[in-house]
Amino acid sequence: MYYEFIKRTIDVIGSIFLIILFSPVMLLTSVVILVTSPGPIFVEKTNSHMRRLGKNGKIFRLYKFRSMMVKADVLEKTDPRFKSVYIEKRTKGNYKVMNDPRVTKVGRFIRKHSIDEMPQLFNVIKGEMSIVGPRAYLPDELREQQKRFPGTEKHFKDVLSVKPGITGYWQVTGRSDVNFDKRIEMDAYYARKRSIIFDILILLKTPWAMISGKGAV
Questions:
Q1: CA nearest 136: which of 153, 102, 152, 160?
Q2: Dist CA 160 CA 110 (whole Å)
Q3: DSSP 178
Q4: How far apart are CA 183 and CA 4, in angstroms?
Q5: Residues whose CB falls within 8 Å of the CB of residue 49, separated by 6 or more in sequence, listed in order
Q6: Can you give the residue ranges of the Bacterial sugar transferase domain (predicted)?
Q7: Residue 169: CB partners within 8 Å, gap ≥ 6?
Q8: Could you tell me which residue, 1 or 39, shows the higher pLDDT?
Q9: Contact 209, 167 (CB under 8 A)
Q10: What angle do CA 22, 28, 33 make, to 5 degrees?
Q11: Tens of pLDDT along 174-186?
Q12: Residues 33-55: pLDDT tens digits?
C-alpha cells in the first residue's frame, strides 16, 4: 500500500520534472522528424504496435516519437519489400528486427538512445505506465511467443500485475539482446521483488543504458 502511494507520487513528480528537463530535446526531435520524414511527429494512433498491455491486461495507447515510415505496421504485412521484416519478427526469440529498413536515419539515432520513448512520460502522468516497470508488451507478442517458449505463460500473471515502465530491469540489463523467455522472466522477477530500493537501482543504471545504446535496435 505504502509502496504504491510512494511510487505513484514519484511517477507524477518525476515525469513532470523530466518533461521540463528534456523539453529542449523533445522539441528538437519533433522539428527534426518533421523536416526529415513526411508524416506525424508521433507514431500514428492507428498503428497496431502502439496498442499495449497495461496493468491487469488493460489495453492502452503507447506514445512514441515516430522513428519509422508512416504506416510501418501495415507495410510489414503488405509491401513485398518488407516481407523479411514480418518473418524475422515472428521467428526470432526477441520479437525485434535488426537493421529494420522501415526505420529512418533520424529514427535509428533516437531509438539507439531511447529518445523515441520520452513521450511515454505522458503515459506515466495519465496513470497508464510507471517510470520503472516491466516492458509494455504487445498482445500478439505474448500470444505468439508463449508458443515459441513453452512455460513462459507462468510469468504473465506477475508481469501484468503491475504497470509497465519506461525503463526496467531487463531494459538496463540487455534490452534487445535478451530473448523473450529471459526477458519476461526478468520482468516477472521485478514484479515479484518490486520495491523503492529496486526502482532506484534501476533508475541509476538507466542513463548509461540510454547513452551507450547497448542492445538497441
A1: 160
A2: 28
A3: S
A4: 24
A5: 43, 72, 73, 138
A6: 7-211
A7: 134, 186, 187, 189, 190, 198, 202
A8: 39
A9: yes
A10: 125
A11: 666 678 888 999 9
A12: 999 988 899 998 888 889 999 99
CB 95 within 8 A of CB 170: no
Q: Which three cell numbers stand for residue 170?
A: 531487463
Q: How far apart are CA 157 and CA 14, in angstroms?
A: 27
The amino acid occupying position 91 is T
Q: Name residue 207's amino acid.
A: P
- For residues 166 and 168, give the distance between their C-alpha atoms in angstroms, rounded to a whole number: 7
Q: Where are the alpha helices (DSSP H) in the chain?
A: 2-21, 23-36, 72-78, 83-91, 105-112, 120-125, 139-148, 156-159, 180-193, 196-212
Cβ-based neighbours of 89, under 8 Å, separated by 6 or more: 76, 95, 96, 97
All 3 cell numbers of residue 114?
531511447
Which band of pLDDT confidence, cut at 50, 70 and 90, is reported for residue 86? Answer: low
